[in-house]
Each structure stands twice: as C-alpha cells, then as structure tokens.
Amino acid sequence: MAKLILLLLKCILLCGTVYAVFEDQVGKFDWRQQYVGKVRFCHFDAHMQSSKKVLLATESNVFAALNTRTGEVLWRHVDKTGPEGNIDAFLQNGQDAVLVVGNGRFLRSWETNIGGLNWEAVLDSGSFQSACLIGQQGTVKNVAVLKKTAISLHYLSNGHQKWIENLPDSDTVDYQTVYSGGNSEVYVLGVVPHSHIAIVAFSGDDGEILQQSSVEAPWLSSIPESCQMVDQDLLICVDSTTMSLYTLDLKLQLQLNQIPLQSLELEVDPDFRPSLVSHQPNPAKQPRSEFFLQLAPDHYVLLQFNNGQLVVLRDFKPALLVSFATTGEKTVAAVMSPKNKTASSINLFNAETGRRLLDTTLIFTMDPNGGKPEKLNVQAFLKKDDSVGYRVMVQTKDHTLTFLQQPGRVLWTREEALSDVLTMEMVDLPLTGTQAELEGEFGKKTDGLMSMVFKRLSSQLILLQAWVAHLWKLFYDARKPRSQVKNDISMENLSRDEFNLQKMMVMVTASGKLFGIDSKTGGILWKHYLENIPSNAAFKLMVQRTTAHFPHPPQCTLLIKDKDTGLASLHVFNPIYGKMSHVSPPALPQPILQSLMLPFMDQDYAKVLLLIDDQYKVSAFPSTKYVLQQLQEMASSIFFFLVDSNQGRLSGYRLRTDLSTEQIWEVALPTETQKIVSVKGKKPNEHVHSQGRVMGDRSVLYKYLNPNLLAVVTESTDLHQERSFVGIILIDGVTGRIIHEAVQRKARGPVHVVHSENWVVYEYWSTKSRRNEFSVIELYEGMELYNSTAFSSLDRPLVPQVLQQSYIFPSSISTMEATLTEKGITSRHLLIGLPSGGILSLPKMFLDPRRPEMASEQSREENLIPYAPELMIRTEWFVNYNQTVSRVRGIYTAPSGLESTCLVVAYGLDIYHTRVYPSKQFDVLKDDYDYMLISSVLLALFFATMISKRLAEVKLLNRAWR
Amino acid sequence: MSFVEKMSLSWLIVLAAIVAVRGFTDSDPGPGAAAATPLGGDRFKIEGRAIVPGVKAQDWVSTARVLVDGEDYVGFLRTDGGFSVNDVPSGSYVVEVVTPSYRFEPVRVDITSKGKMRARMVNYIKTSEVIRQPYPLQIRSSGPHSYFMKRETWGWTDFLMNPMVMMMVLPLLIIVLLPKVVNTNDPEMRKEMEQSMNMLNPNPELPDVSELMTKLFSGSKGSSKASSSKGTRPAVKRR
To answer: Which of A572, A593, B38, B138 has the fewest beta carbons closer than 10 A?
Structure first.
C-alpha cells in the first residue's frame, strides 16, 4: 500500500508540470457558444409583464430559457438523446413549465425562474397522444395526459396522480386529443378513420364518464391535423374533399354541421390540405372564437364564430405565416406577408374585428443564403398608453431564430443549426497583399542580382508603410472611448496572423447549412444554406486547394450522400467567402462507395478527388486531360479499400491505368460472431518528428510508422456479459496483411479509437469489472530500421514488435482525439470529451505500454512513469475549465504555425475553441513574461556600469595624484 | 522503390455501422443486468440529495445533472437539491452529480432484481469491496472545482531565498567583509595566511582561487606591493 501511495505521489509530482490553464487566460483565446437545437415548442414567459424570458423545448431534447434581450442561454437542461428524452408536449402555467418526455414516460414540472425541477412523475407505459391543462373556476390545478388506451389526471402542485381511467373501445378508436374548456369537464376525442368521431367526456373531479357518443364523419382521418377547438366547446374541422368546414358542439353532440366554403365565398387551392389555427389564451377559460383558416400556402382567412354564425373577418393574401398572441385581455393576430424577394412585413390585427392596428408594421429581412420562415412566435405586451406592442421570434427552415422588435430592429439571431455540426475543417486564412509580395520574392530565383535587391528594398518599404499605418491606427483608436473601438473581423481585413493561429472554421451541419466561423472570435463570417438536403445525408468535407496558391482561390468540396440510396452530389465552394465556385462539379449518376483525395494536384493546384461508384468505376474531379494523364502514370501505386460492415468484409483494390479497378485482397470477418464497428486510418496531415525512441541504455527503438495501417474495431454480436468481446485488428491497407490482432474479452462498446504515429489507443467498457478501460498498442520495428529512406507496404518483411498495456479510466467518455502539431516535435496529448462536459487533456505519456511495474535506473533515464492501474481525471487538466461542452460529438485538432500550439475545436450541442500547448509554450515567450523586470534589470545594470566606470576613473585619477 | 499510397475510409458504411451501434447501446438494459432483467422488466428509482455546504440549492441546481453510468440514465435536481433517477433496471451503477462549479464524489449504487438498494464507495480497482454509504444518497460537495494552475508570481523574497542567489551572496559578503575584519597590512598576519595558503595549495605553479583572493585582498587595500605585475602597470601610467 505504501508503495502504491509512493507511486501515486510520483505521478502527482510528474503531473504537476503538465499543461493546465491559468486563471488569467480565461477567455483570452478560447470561446464557447451554447445552442439548444431546433425549436419544437416555444412559450414566452408571460406571467410577469416585465419578464425577459423565452422558454424553448427543442428537437435535441433540450429545455432552455433564453434571455429575450440578448439571446443568451439563462439556463438549459440537456436530457438523454434519442426517443427516451424526446419532449412530446410543453404546457406553461404561470412560472411552472410542464413537460411530457420520452413518449409519455415522464411528466416533469420545472420552476422557470431558477431552472430547477419541481417534481418528476413516472407515467404508465403507453404511447403518448396529447396533453392539456385542466382549469377549474379560473385556476389551473391539473394536467391531463392522454395515452393510447388511458387518460390520467395529475396535480400540478406535486405531480401526484388524481385519477386514471381506461378509454372505452380503445382497440378500435384512435384517441388523439384531449380538451378542456375551463369547466372541469375533460373531453377526449378519438377517431375511427373514415367512419366516425368518438367523444368521451370525463368529470375532472373523479374521472367518471359523463357522456359518451360517436358522430359520423367518414371524411376524417386525423383530428390534430384538420380540427381545432374554438369558442364554447365547439369542434371545428376542415375537409378538402368536400370543401367544407364542419362544426360540432361537444355539449350537444348531435351531428356535424356542414358549412360549405363556397357559402363563405372561399376557395381552397387544389392539392393543398387546408388547416386551422386557433388560440386558447388561458386554459381555465374557453378558447377564442376567432381562428385562421389556411387555404393555400400563402393564403389565410381570419374567421369568427358569432352566435352560431361564421363570419369572415379578413382575407390575407399573400400571407406566409400567422400567429395569435394575447396580452392582458387583448388578443391580436400577427400576419407575415411577403414584401419583396428579401423582405417581409409583419402586421398586427385586432382579433375580434380584423382591423389592422396602427404603427405595428415590422420589417423582417430574410437572409438570401438562409431558409424560408417557418414559424412565427409573437410576444405581445401592453404599452403605457394601453396599446399593444410586440416583439417577434421568427423561426426559419435553416433552424435560425431571429428576434425582432419594431420597426425591424434585430435584437439577436441564433444559428441553432450549429447545435448539430457533423463535420468540419480548418482552413488557413489568405495572406495579405504585402505578405504575398514578400512570399513571392522567395518564389522565383531567375532574376538578376540588382532586381533582387530592388525587390527586397521595395517590399521592405511596403512593410514599413504598413507598420506606420498600423501605428497610426493604434494612435487614432486610443483617443476614442474603448466601447467604440471594435476589433471585429470582417471579410475585408481577413488575413493570416504571424503564427497562423487564426483560421477559418468551415462547419457542416445536419440541416445542410454551412458556416464559416472565425476561429479567433467565434463570429460567423458567412453562412450558406443548401436546400434539398436529404434528412439522412452523410457529409464529407475535403479541402482541395488551400490558400497557399494565390491567385487561385481556395477550394473546398463537400460530398453529400443520401445514406439510403447511396446517391451523392458535390458542392464546391470557396471556404473563405462561402461562395459557390464557378467550377461545375460532375453529376454523379451512380451511388458512390468511396472517395479519396490524392496527394498530387492538377495544373491549377487543386488536389485530385477520386470517387468510386458501385460498379467499381473510378471518376476523378477535376478531370482534365492533365489529371487523367497523371492518373495513368500513378495508377500502379494507387490503392484503396472498401468496408462492408453488413457482410463483415474488408477488401482492397488497385487502380488500373484505364481507371477500372482490380481487387487484390479481401478479409472476411464472420458476421455471426462479430461486426465491424469502425475503421480508423491515420491523419494524412500528421507528421512524426522522431523515428525512434531513445532507451535508457542509449540504444534506439525504432517506431513502426506505416502510413497505410488501418485499425479495425469489431464488437461481438453476442451481448451476454460473459461472452461479449471487443476485437481490434491492425491491417495494412495496401497488402491486406494483418499486422496484429487483439481481443478484449468480457468487454463491450461503444469503443472509441485514436490511431496515430505508431500507436492505437482504444477505450471500451469492461463488463466483468463494470468500468471503463483504456488500452494502448504500440508498434516498433526493433533496434534496426529495415529501409530508413522510404516506407513501402510491399517491402516490409519483418513483423513489428507489439507492446500493449491497459488502464482503468474512472469515467465513461463521449469522444476522443489526439493533439496535432506542425512538425510533430511536441509531445502528444489525448483530448477526451467526458459526459460531464469537460474536455480532458491526458498526456500520452500515461498511456505508454513501456511503463514499468518497478522503476529502474533505465526507466527513470527514459522518463517512464511507473505503472499504475488507474488513470486520474484532474480538473486542472480540463482545457475548457468550467466552460462545459454538452454532448461532445467530435473534437477537431489542427496544427498552427507554432510548433508548440495545437488548435482544438470541440463540437456537439455547444462549440468550444481553444489552443493547447502539450509541451508548454517552448517557442514563444510566456504570456506572463515580465518585461518590466527584465528591462529594469538591464537598465539598472547599464547605470551600474556607467557609475562604476566613472568611479574607477576618479579612483585612477586620485591614485595618479598620490 | 517508393510508393505513393493513399487511402481513406469507407466512411459512409462506417458511419452507418456506428449509427447501428448507438441504437443498440440505447436499448441495452445496462451492465450487469443483461441477463437478469429483459427490457420491460422492473424499473427502479435511485433517490438522493446533493448538498453544497453554505450554498443555497437554488443557486446551482440549474447547471447540475445526475448521470448514471455516463449518460445511460439522466436525472435532474429539484429546487431543494434532491434528485431521483427513474426507470433504472436492476444492476450496479455509478451515480455522479455533475456541475461545472462544484465537485461531488461518485457513488456506486447496487439494485437487486427485487429492488433492494445499496450505496457504496466507488472503487475501480477492487470492484467487490463494500464500504457502505447511506441510501437514499447523501452526496456532499467537497468544494468548488479547481481548474486553474497558480501563476508563478515574482517577489523579492522568492528571489532572495533562491539557493543560487544565496550561494552567490554569501561568498560576496565574505569577499567584501573579510578584508575589513582582518588587517592584511599586518606582516605577521600575512605570513600566517601565506603559510596556510601554501599548505592548502601544494603546487604553486597552478593559479587558483585562493591566490586570486589574496591578490584581490591586497588590491582592495590599494597596496602595489602584493604582486609585481599588478604593481608595475599603474607605475607605467604614472609617468
């Protein structure tokens, strides 16, 4: 035990020197953006007139409150992903918000002021249909939840169940909505499609069935889609086949009353399914008697029920979106109508009369690169003079939220598409004109001596000019108050900094919206919404041409593939400005199996992209004559592989000169016992500085650096905890030779793998010990290198030495990535995203299979830490300190111009960017470097020498006179 | 011969496979329980309370979550700091309260197939060791997280107490003060010193520190007799 403590102590001592954040670095080069996801339900907090809160329940299973003044997240609760955390319904009552979660499994009540839970109730199983608040004598005390076969009532104060009743004939009737008009009666409406409506009225007090009847309605198939409640217990439905409105009084329940639309002089657009929008401002009172009827995509009619008569109040055409809002006793209708191509206007109308309210026009300008507006959420409030003012939150198709106030001032926008980033790349910013000039000087060497000198002088002059301009700007800015000085980045002054620390982050989101984000500030510089992206699309982003080839613009290519059909398309754009490239991508008629970027370029410096279709035919992009010729020359050395996880097959192919392919190897894994989970290669832009490791006895252990090595992870199909296993196979992608195979028994996934240099680190769940474990495999060639000039998979007769070691990790992990630096000199760290939101920077030194059990002289010489089974999580190692990143899906690492610095972007629900220094900042002065001290010491020394010189002179003179 | 070999992943298929795996983990009933309870078996509730001493629960519960075995089951904290994680099948779980501001120790909770609960300390190395803890859980925070390293601040005391500086300062003091204490002009004293020096330094050919020091001593007193080389130079200048 004492030994263990000693070991731990040593570890701590060693770790003390490892990277951590200093408190004064907070926010200096890191930033975080918090998102909530695509909004499903939205309620403005209306119980207080001065409230600044909007509550959002989203499709990402997040429930959050935003500050309406700034758009910032006040608090946020992130539930489980998937259907178990799905928010089915959101009801608001005063300062409590009631949520139905997980297909009616949980009922939760949140205290919206502080963002804490009031209570949580577990409901009986059964698929959720609908929920509503039940009011009684003006107050709301209960909530009703309708399931497929039962209805239950719960107290709002503590969530306890008041009563639960089975629904009659639930096997034939499809119960769909529950409604209460504020008088303790609970109506449950069901439908037998194309036959009749079933209505059951329950007593709110004890669940007794008061009334039960059915009404013929052969045209009706779904109540929520075509019916709404209006006025006093009146069900109103619209049907497109008979072109009629139907009304039914739930109290009397005689029969449906048909009102042909023609009698109201209205006409439904052909092939359009009309719909209704009604409004119940207070659950304890009856709904409004006014409602909207949508007749065409851009045609709405405001109707009113007046003493049993339908009256058309106003016709809105063209109108994109409508919404009701209530403040105090006043109810208004907001209508958005298009004005021109890029702007639409929103107006308020009095709901009772349909009259337009004066001075309520609001202009909403649409982003030409964004989506169309989808939903209108209106926050109405009473002004001092008792007129109605309002703000509006517009949801657009690209998941953007825009919050506006009159007369069209945008208070804030939120790009919720960024809550679902799928893939990203970091692109270097272009050089400025002067920088390019300087670079150009070193490019050509054909000029004579004199011209070279002149060139140098002129470029120096330009630099001087730029420096003076910079100084002048500094001086000019210094006189202005600080608040006015904005150092925001715009497209014009976008240029690379000295150490290439600022880059352009190109992010691809699941909604099909692309973003260009400045990595220094996190500001969105451009966005581009790709319409018609299939919902299950897979994306692959590739940088074909970097910014290094001025005047050719940089070029990125996005491969978009429908996962079901396999059909793909290419989107080619400029990553700095987000503009579509003029290069027209080829049409891809065949499903694409594989894509690969080749290391050679065409005459315009664009890397060649190869696409392999399901006929194993290869097409190149760009496919100029030059490229095809190059391809023919190189064909014999181009190999690729395909993975078919359904059939457990890995196969390697070779390119022929006529651009057809030939299978050269195949590895089949029996699908009955295991399936391929992931295949990881090495990053193409990774550099390894040292070829070997110097051992304690001064000999060198050479690394096995095979660029074509693949790590294939398999999981057993048998999930029994005694028999499940995780396998890892290291396979050469060119020859198909299996280099190493390891099996972890009594383990299961999810497996996270990092494959880099000569090592593979993977993490799995040990079912035997019920803990997460890390395992590291390192490959070495031995004490001699076989062919030190170049590596070839085809000529490597020796099998590498394999070392492996495993460790316990005290937390599960979400994702894992390794740091990456320019030249690979800096030591490596693993960046581990934890479910708690922390991003742990774990030195690779701890995951070293050469860690000895007992420290010896040689191992100490090598700086090996003695083996300890448990890896530690120290909060000092969190690169994001308290800026937690929810649901980390991926971590992207990119080298910067400084060898010590690695740029890190963690994305998931949030986006976080920072810099890490795995070996500390050895190539720049520390940012706490004490310039004052060093200069004062220098000055002091200078004066000391001056004084002592003078003293010495005086002394010599005195001596001479003696 | 060198080959240009380039490959990339068959990313689409792999992606599909990963999705399939995710699906399976979601529906998995949890570790240790795979055989005992099939899906739809009895589900239990883990209850407890998290306390941050000296801080009102309202001030921190909005940022906190209760995680059971990573993110397999998620619970939220009530406004009084209490929590319950519903719908957990029998098995053994690590329950953790996570918040960016305060540190909480994780607890292992065992649930038998009959629903009996037991809480114990988490020990990943000896997994079967049982150190009981109260159930319903009482998780007390051990203070705020420490995320930051302390900057090395520069102070005069740090500088002076530095061993290197001490090593420099002490001899300096000796060099300056010793000649003042000991009168080097006294010929007897000189003789004594020279003798001791000779004893220390048997080889007179080698110039060494002690010799230098004596030179310095004599130099500081301004006498030109100590060494001829030193004495002649000012003499030349005098002319």
So the answer is: B38
Residue B7's SS3 state is coil
- pLDDT (average), residues A249-266: 81
Are A556 and A574 within 8 A, CB to CB? Answer: yes
Residue A13 pLDDT > 90: no
On whether the CB atoms of residues B18 and A604 are closer than 8 A, the answer is no
Distance from CA of A590 to the nearest CA of B (A): 15
CB–CB contact B58 A82 (8 Å): no
How far is CA B129 from each of CA A321, A350, A521, A811, B94, rounded to the nearest angstrom? 63, 71, 50, 19, 14
pLDDT tens, position by position, B65-87: 999 988 889 999 998 889 999 88
Question: A123 near A143, Cβ under 8 Å?
Answer: no
Q: Are B60 and B76 in contact (CB under 8 A)?
A: no
Chain A segment 747-806 residues within 8 A of B by beta carbon are 749-750, 765, 767, 769-771, 789-790, 792-795
From B75, which residue of chain A is nearest by alpha-carbon distance? Answer: A79
Answer yes or no: are the C-beta atoms of A571 and A532 closer than 8 Å: no
Categorise residue A234: left if φ over 0, alpha if ψ from -120 to 50, beta otherwise: beta
Strands, E assignment, A783-874: 801-809, 815-818, 829-833, 839-843
The pLDDT, as a whole number, for residue B6 is 38
The predicted-structure confidence for A145-158, as pLDDT tens digits, reads as follows: 999 888 999 999 88
- pTM of the predicted structure, to 2 decimals: 0.84
* DSSP string for A394-416: EEETTSEEEEEETTTEEEEEEEG
Provide the mean pLDDT of chain B. 72
**Pairing relationship of beta strands B44-51 and B137-140 according to DSSP bridges:** parallel
Question: What is residue A556's predicted lDDT score, i.e. its pLDDT?
Answer: 92
| Assigned token pair, A932 | 């004052």
More confident residue, A603 or A788: A603
Instruction: Answer whether A689's CB lies under 8 Å from A824's CB.
Output: yes
CATH homologous superfamily of B43-144: Immunoglobulins (2.60.40.10)
Number of helices followed by number of strands (H, E) in chain A? 7, 63
- Pick the residue of B10, B84, B99, B122 with the most A CBs within 10 A to test the interface with A by mutation: B10
Contact B13 A645 (CB under 8 A): yes
Q: Is pLDDT larger for residue A548 or for residue A506? A: A506
pLDDT at residue A423 is higher than 80:
yes
Burial of A496 (0-12, 13-18, 19+ CB in 10 A): middle
What is the mean pLDDT of the segment spanning B115-120?
89
Domain positions in chain B are 43-144, 152-200
The residues in A 567-606 lying below 8 A from B, measured between CB atoms, are 592-600
The DSSP result for A417-437, as a single string, is GGGGEEEEEEEEPPPPHHHHH
| Surface of A (891-930) touching B: CB under 8 A | 928, 930
Nearest-angstrom CA–CA distance, A414 and A402: 7
Per CB-CB distance under 8 Å, the chain A contacts of B9 are 643, 679-681
Helices (H), B81-205: 156-161, 163-181, 187-200
E strands of chain B, at which residues?
A: 44-51, 65-68, 73-75, 82-88, 91-98, 107-111, 117-121, 132-133, 137-140, 148-149
CA separation for the pair A397, A529 (Å, rounded): 9
* Of A31, A87, A81, A102, residue with least CA distance to A57: A87
Tens digit of each residue's pLDDT (9 = 90 or more) over A904-952:
999 999 999 999 998 888 888 877 778 888 899 999 999 999 999 999 9
pLDDT band at A710 (very low <50, low <70, confident <90, very high): very high
Q: Do B15 and A538 touch (CB under 8 A)?
A: yes
| Residue B145 identity (one-letter amino acid) | H
Tally helices (H) and strands (E) across chain B.
6, 10
Which residues face A556 on adjacent strands? A543, A573
